[in-house]
Write a structure and sequence with these properties.
By secondary structure, this protein is of the alpha+beta class. The chain has a domain at about 1-160 and about 200-225 and about 290-300: Ribosomal Protein S5, domain 2. It is built from 11 helices and 10 strands. It has helices spanning about 65-75, 100-115, 120-130, 135-140, 175-185, 195-210, 230-235, 235-245, 270-280, 290-300, 320-325, and strands spanning about 1-20, 25-45, 55, 85-90, 145-150, 155, 165-170, 255, 260-265, 285-290. A hairpin with a 5-residue loop joins strand 1 and strand 2 (about 25-45). The radius of gyration is 20 Å and the shape is globular. It binds cytidine-5'-monophosphate. Cytidine-5'-monophosphate binds next to strand 2 and helix 5. Cytidine-5'-monophosphate binds near residues 26 and 150.
Length: about 325
Amino acid sequence: MHEVVVPAFAKLNLSLLVLGRRGDGYHELRTVFQTIGLADRLTVRHQSGGPLRITLDDPLSIPGNLVLKAAQAVAEAAHLRGTWEMRLDKRIPMGGGLGGGSTDAAAVLLALPALAGRPLTMAELERLALSLGSDVPFFLHGGTSLGLGRGEELYPLSTPAAGHVLLATPGVHVSTPEAFRRLGRASVSELTLPDPIPTLETFRALVAALMTVRPGAGWQRYCHNDFEGPVFGLHPELSALRRKLELAGADPARMSGSGSTLFGVFPSRAKLREAGESLGGAPVVLTRFMNRARYRAAWFRALAKVVRTTQWPPQSPYASHASSSRRSGPPRSTIR
Ligand code: C5P
């Protein structure tokens, strides 16, 4: 019997541009994902032997919990057997644009094969991840990434320094499909226009700014979220809250994903604390940017009982007996 408690970190979209509707019904995105320190905790207990049995203790009874779907998908792909008992302790606000459900699903995809000693390649994990949701693949990597396509085409970026983050969670629920519909985007086939060059230029400027400009020195003008227009139209209080963050010195102050969480980035912990106090009792979380090395280090600490290498995705030393008959060669590197 093995038991581990793994972290499932939240993300922000530092910027999120929605270009147009694709033939498959999804939208073409240009986004910058950023992992932050706020995390759910997933406890996984595994007893080998016997037929496959998966259970989830979910104190919040989340409808359609992706944890179970992810466990079923990865169990099938990695030919897992035995008993899997999971427990999910939520800390990431739900339906808030912070990727809570997606990161829980990715945590399952990383943890179960590692515990069973039946590793999957990163390509296999990415395929499963995308079948669960557009931003699940990002959580297999963590850190800072450019996300193209549905958000699954990922290019690692270095993590900007000094990212002290305030999250304000006003408790407004925004439906993601509804937010996309409200954008009323044209089909991608018409996307040679209206203005591809400014869009590309905006995005290039953002990436350059993230690499060179410190928060507090002008990120706001490079970071956009196309959902703010339609979502603030429905919930004007979110716009007022974003203004408060700006006045408290946040740079940028934006909504994450399709909302409704607003975030402010501050250049120091002192400024972050001051801002937290200035919001006067509204529910806030204070956290930080997390880079890819720290993301992986947190995973290796959590899996220390079963994983003794620093290969990614994490693998237990018992791995080879289970997988060598099915595949040739080591798992592919995750970095594109
Ligand atoms: O992929 P995921 O299940 O997270 O997407 C939820 C919904 O958000 C989709 O059904 C779709 O309506 C919308 N979506 C989209 N384009 C994307 C990602 C999501 O239209 N790139």
